[in-house]
Amino acid sequence: MIRVESLDQEGRGVAHADGKVIFIQGALPGELVTYTSYSKKPSYEVAQVTQIVEPAPMRVTPRCPHFGTCGGCSQQHLDARAQVAAKQRVLEDNLRRIGKVECGSILPAIYGEAWGYRHRARFSARYVQKKGGALIGFREKRSSYVTDMTTCAVVPPRISALLVPLRELINGLSRPERLPQIELAIGDDTDALVLRTLEPLSERDGQALRDFADRHRVQFFVQPRGPDTAVPFYPPHEGVLYYKLPEFGLELGFSPTEFTQVNAAVNRVLVRRAMTLLAPQSGERIADMFCGLGNFTLAIARSGARVAGFEGARSLVARAQANAARNGLADIAEFHLMDLFKIDVAGLAALGHFDRMLIDPPRDGAVELIKSLSADAPPRRIVYISCNAATLARDAGVLVHVNGYALTAAGVVNMFPHTSHVESIAVFDRS
């Protein structure tokens, strides 16, 4: 038996034995557990809990019957409030250990409903004759196998209720083994299901999809190759979904395979928090780096500031421009195609002066952009939205120790409840 001391960044219990660190899946701080190691290295082991001898007060009963097998969630056994607190500790630890920076103040955590929150999901589909036909679900933990899911607690209940009917639909197709993936994308008035089709559907298959769509009120897309090939199948549809940011009077369009935030409710709160912290003023010029389809850019434009969005995906630049026009903001919101992973001091200086900057990079962070801020007259305030606490901490170290910024505030955004994923927001000021 072993006493668990803390949680690591992947939500595993951390203990020590015989000079080694033991990372234990399914264990919580303070618990006395037994475990079985499945990976042994000279300085650490990775293990699975086998028995909870003394449970922690923060332990709860997982809601989902597939928890423990399914790789979609890792923390359903931990109280939702404790999950947020654990993520805050991960953020603070990364800032201190990697970035060597201290935070001026801790922002209140942003969080929302813990269940039924996912408006985007990518389910694997696999036809397994020995298991009775089609399986639909997330991948199993540490495996390429598809979880035999009949329900999912983190997608809306109406979507969870479709998992079994979708299995039956696939079983009835002429080539069920040729449909390996179903992607979910929910707009404000559309539930879209994108079917990855490795070969064209037969007429009988098409009729089965049409009947299913009518019965369950979903919109089918088919995707024969890459994400850009997804097109509406049935019912007739323009191919664009929409979501609203009511506080800013915005309606943003997106295709079901384009990036939008998984958690629509938390995204609305995040945009509001980002605008409060950025505090854009009429007459200012502001940059939105890694702007995507304009989620933050157009909220900035609503303040009356002039804003320039920069994005490396051509399709998203086009979508952002269309969203600006749709919302009557094309005169003060402009969008440019730019690879921000290759920018340098001269390239950033050529864009002109920005009073403030919002940065929302992918997991790799924005270190080349951050290094380029040593140009004259850098933005006096930067709001940095991160989906990786380690790269945020690395970039924070450069901003503070090289570029002369102060880390004024930071806090977590619980975009993915029941997972160890840490989203965060930070504010950097330069006098």
Task: Quickly list its features.
23% helix, Rossmann fold, six-stranded mixed beta sheet, eight-stranded mixed beta sheet, OB fold (Dihydrolipoamide Acetyltransferase, E2P), 10 helices, 431 residues, alpha/beta
Explained architecture:
- By secondary structure, the chain is α/β, with parallel strands linked by helices.
- The chain folds into 3 domains: 1-59, OB fold (Dihydrolipoamide Acetyltransferase, E2P); 88-113 and 263-429, Vaccinia Virus protein VP39 (Rossmann fold, 3-Layer(aba) Sandwich), CATH 3.40.50.150; 120-241, OB fold (Dihydrolipoamide Acetyltransferase, E2P) (Beta Barrel).
- Helix content is 23%, strand content 29%.
- The chain is built from 10 helices and 22 strands.
- It has helices spanning 80-97, 157-160, 163-171, 203-216, 264-278, 297-301, 314-326, 345-349, 367-371, 389-401, and strands spanning 2-3, 6-7, 13-17, 20-25, 32-40, 44-54, 105-106, 120-128, 133-137, 181-186, 191-196, 219-223, 231-234, 241-245, 250-254, 285-289, 306-311, 333-337, 356-359, 381-386, 406-413, 423-429.
- The strands form 4 sheets. Strands 7-21-22-20-19-16-17-18 form an 8-stranded mixed sheet, sandwiched between helices.
- α1 runs parallel beside α10.
- The longest helix has 18 residues, at 80-97.
- The chain starts with a strand and ends with a strand.
